[in-house]
Amino acid sequence: MRHADAPSLLKESRESAALNPLANVARLGVAGQADSTTRAPVALTVRDFSAWYGSFQAIKSVSFEVRTKRVTALIGPSGCGKSTFLRWINRMNDMVASARAEGTLNLHGIDLLDQRMDVVDLRRRVGMVFQKPNPFPKSIYDNIAFGPRLHRSFRRAELDRLVEQSLRHAALWEEVKDRLHDSALGLSGGQQQRLCIARAIAVGPEVLLMDEPCSALDPQATLRIEDLIRQLRSEYTIVIVTHNMQQAARISDVTAFFYEGALIEAGRTIDLFTKPQKKQTEEYVTGRFG
Amino acid sequence: MASLSNELLNLRRLLLTMSAEVEQRVNQALDGLLKHDLRSAEAVREGDDPIDQLDMDVESECATILALHQPVASDLRYVMAALRINADLEKIADLARGIAKKVIKLEYLKPMERPPVLLDMASSVRAMIADTMRSLANGDANLALNVRGADKTVDRQYKELMTWAAQQMSIPGHDPKALLDVIGIVRSIERIADLCANVAESVIFAADGTVVRHQPVVRSAS
Across the interface, which of A20, A246, A282 has its CB nearest the CB of B73? Predict the structure, then answer.
């Protein structure tokens, strides 16, 4: 997957192949190379997407595609627009009076910018996990059952199964199965974050958005969340914002680099971290700016 | 802890010191062979402790960078290339020492006529090693690509020398020990050319991520 510049980049490489013998030989992580990452169906189509807060343009005509059941990491310095972009995917920015957007943001054929859209239904399909774990001041059980109950009524046994299944998916069941009715606030930070992930997946979303989900966790808890993200990848499309580039490299299939609201480069994570195409990406991932 | 850029600078300094040492040793060994310069050959034979030390220093610096800085992109490629180049340079130094030992033995056994193509081959390898080290110092992928091309010339000269050696064997009165040493020297020179090509491939990889290893040689237009 490449961003909007990809056709011109490929054209450039064909032209340079005629002049430069280096261009004729195999390249590490060929840009646009077909593989299991780029072959996955498109979940989210982003075309000429721009977003503003009042007169400030936070995102500038971004185009790329998020693939189904892949982890896409959004990286870039603070204020580059990555969190704004994430928040538009489940319309969190509706709460911000000055926020507006243009262009195409399309999830499996549904126009996410359509004002007539039922955002409650959208948030069932697109779950979100935040920087700081935010469990409800309720029991562990009720934290998980809360979302599903909003959407429909359940028989007790059915809900029990759903709670167990969600906690198992979030790799938390074994640690909490004997205290499901204890307050969720008594869990450790890492456990609370996994509870939030369990809560998000309990409503059966297609997409999970994660906004720096490990930034408030210790290294051990971070590793557990990273393991969990790798496991969840087989069932959910995950878009994660992270400031930790090693984390992006470890867990994502695709990485998109944002800078000053523009998408500079998006591609296979292995390509972006070994052979970025753009100088700005190279300088950012090697820590020379940002 | 030093910054990544300082560590990379130190790695570069070590690698360039090693490449200069190795180039000097190859040239001294070839001087011993072509100019009967035994003093040069003996200097190379004396041992390669400095090379061994540099080999360990480069490896240790790479390990430090990988463990403490987790480099990516061009920094990662440079460290990966440095590890391979280091190993190749160390082997080149060993081969130079092997040549020097045989040259000294040959001189004491029986000075023998060097075939003209051996002089050509030695000149080719001298030029190759100079270009290899220059491409390494400047990160010049195009020059490195030419080094790969030059290896083919050395391969052809090697075949000619093997034919010459086979003819020598059929000549009555030849000294088989001396001939075997000459064949050993020729093989070592050819191997040095191969290793220069390997270093050149690593230089290309470090420069722009292109993997030319196991790919047919394409001559640069320049």
Answer: A282
ipTM score of the complex? 0.71
Query: What is the per-residue pLDDT for A191?
Result: 95
Q: Structural domains in chain A?
A: 6-11+65-88+118-285 (3.40.50.300)
Query: Rounded to whole angstroms, how far apart are CA atoms B102 and B114?
Result: 14
Would the CB atoms of A26 and B212 count as touching at under 8 Å? yes
CA distance A216 to chain B (A): 22
CB contact under 8 A, B73 and A24: no
pLDDT tens digits along A241-276: 999 999 999 999 999 999 999 999 999 999 999 999
Over residues B132-157, the mean pLDDT reads 95
| DSSP per-residue string spanning B152-189 | HHHHHHHHHHHHHHHHHHHSTT--HHHHHHHHHHHHHH
Residue B214 lies in a domain: no
Q: pLDDT of A24-78, one tens digit each?
A: 333 333 344 456 777 899 999 999 999 999 999 999 999 999 999 999 999 999 9
- CATH of residue B129's domain is 1.20.58.220
Q: How far is A28 from chain B (nearest CA, A)?
A: 6
Residues of A whose CB is below 8 A from B197: none
Mean pLDDT of chain B: 91
Instruction: In whole angstroms, give the CA distance from residue B63 to residue B90.
Output: 17
